[in-house]
Amino acid sequence: MEYCPSNLRNIEGLHIKFSESMIRQVLRDVCMGLKQLHKQKIVHLDIKPGSYFRLFRCINSQCLENILYSRTHKYKIADLGLSRIAERQAGEDINEGDSRYLAPELLSDYSENLPDLTKADIFSLGVTIYELMTGMPPPSSLA
Amino acid sequence: MPKNGPEWRAIRSGHLPRLENLRDYSNSLKSIIKMMLSPNPDQRPSAQDLLENSLQSELELELRWEKAQNLQLKKKIKEYEQKLRIHRKNSF
């Protein structure tokens, strides 16, 4: 994988407001990655801002403040530490991901009707985008 | 299992008041996010659905429009060619 000096969390830290087109770019790039994963029946299960790495074609961390304005950048999914095959055994717990981004069906006991796990990634991406749009981190499950 | 806060639960039951109040984003983008956050996983779009229907860039939409135009023109050309052929046959 290419050198990625920054992730979405760092970019947020710069207090840059995500415009509609930037949001759409994040969505497009991450969906492209998810589509490839899901096609191979793999689910990520820990999609959140820190999981995207912005790809630099020019390797230059000095231009960090300008990265959002360059056309050559792409978002990439990283940190597949919790990813797994998209099949859930009845009664099995799979809620180790960050609870702020966790889909509701991963917390309930679906012993009869097993949900499509790929849709849990879509939910987490939705929460991530919600965070970028509202400018506030999503509520913690402990609050 | 941790106790879940009210806003955490609200997001997971499809209530997104903060999202709806945002002014800087289009309604179409907001409705995409709302769909992605459906409590029912079956109602959420897949990554492929999103790419094919909701997230096409303007350039892609333009390309699709041009391709459709192109197809129409090709059909027209074929029609005229056929008419011409019939016309030639009849005039001999």
Q: What's the short story on this structure?
A:
The complex is a heterodimer of chains A (143) and B (92). Chain A has 143 residues and is an alpha+beta fold. Chain A has helices at residues 8-13, 20-39, 118-134, and strands at 6-7, 42-43, 52-55, 74-77, 84-85.
Q: Your description of this structure?
A:
The complex is a heterodimer of chains A (143) and B (92). Chain A has helices at residues 8-13, 20-39, 118-134; strands at residues 6-7, 42-43, 52-55, 74-77, 84-85. In chain A, helix 2 (20-39) packs antiparallel against helix 3 (118-134). Chain A has a 3-stranded antiparallel beta sheet with strand order 1-3-4. Chain A has a two-stranded antiparallel ribbon with strand order 2-5. Chain A is globular and about 40 Å long. Chain A is built from 3 helices and 5 strands. Chain A is α+β, with helices and mostly antiparallel strands. Chain B is mostly helical. Chain B contains 5 helices and no strands. Chain B has helices at 6-12, 17-20, 27-36, 47-54, 58-91. The longest helix of chain B has 34 residues, at 58-91. Chain B is rod-shaped, with a radius of gyration of 25 Å. Chain A binds chain B through residues 17, 19-20, 23-24, 27-28, 31-32, 34-35, 38, 99-100, 103-105, 107, 115-116, 118-123, 125-127, 129-130, 133-134, 136, 138-143, and chain B through 1-5, 7-8, 11-13, 16, 18-19, 22, 24-26, 29, 32-33, 36-37, 39, 41-42, 44-48, 50-51, 55, 57.
